[in-house]
Structure prediction request, 391 residues.
Amino acid sequence: MKKPIKKTWMIASVLTIGMAVLTPLQAGAASVETTNNSSITVQLEQKITGTIKNIYDDGMNLKGKDGKNYFISFHKFSDEQIEKMKLVEGQEISVEGNIAESFSDFFTFEVFKKDMPKEITKEDLTKLEKLFNEMKHVHKEFTKVEGLTDEEIEKKHEELKKIYEEIHKIIKPYTLANWQPQSFEEYMKEYGFNEKNIVIKENDNAQLKAIYEEWIKLEKSGDEEKANKKYEEFDKILEPYLDELNAPETFEEFMASCMKVTEILEIPAETLAKLKTLHRDLQKALKDENDELYDKLHEEFYGILNQFLKPQTFEEYMADFEFEVSEADSKQLKQLYEEILALDEKEEQEKIEEKWEAFYNILDPYFIANKEILISASKVTINGQDYLPQH
Prediction:
């Protein structure tokens, strides 16, 4: 019996709900009377106190004392400020900030320009802001407009590409003026070849160093086309070493990692050999970027493997969710889950899909009730210490 397709099914559902447009909380808006008796609506800042669940480069997940889940964005803060906060999972923290409708709302022009060179002129900043707003508009059309044709999507990609190129043209001279390139040795160290005991041949190393230094000269001169061609030479020499560094997971490594997640029943030697061959072919299709073949092999591989994966119990399956369901819903969910396990995957695929749909229809209200509220932080308080964005 095939193991329930929990990972893909659940993640897809969570992402769908998580990326939905959030309606600002009613408490976050207030009507303000003006001197001429008209009124305007302003967004009041929220104040949340809670415990840090997860920490990312640009934000964190927070479990509020009010029982709600939040994603707190640090886009307004510098990397140095975030480092000084010394955030730790499980730590209590207070945050003030505005509610955002989507993750893209965190990326404002103020955020965009904070890491730009200080020498940039007001005139260029004005041009960049105009281009930035155009970029946001095109991106919004991607996310808001449904049913775009492939041709329309391609057109939007081209629009974005042109905008990026214009932005790049304005910023690059400032970037080059401030650029302090690494030495060749420092640059190569970042690849991590030494950590895996990969030794670059002396002749290749000499060529790489010479090309790297020529590339720096071309970049500084502003000759981007020649610089790119020079870097292609660099990549060509380095490619076999990168292949060794990023060697794909072996079949044995894959099976070992799989066994850490779930119990695998004994697989006959003949079937194991078939899986190993399919795994090798999958890796080749991935490297060749043959998507059609990869999808076909992927389906065949997991179609065989899933027959030997011990299904989770209903209780194990539900343990990964951060919320608890009512007793009545739990009873219905358990019945559906056990009915799914009892169905033959090959013969009853349509019925299985129907039951999974019914299963997640019961869970959807819980996902919605527990979805994260997006907050753009404007003040963070930790251990009585306040942190404010630097302007």
Notes: Confidence is low (pLDDT under 50) at residues 1-43.
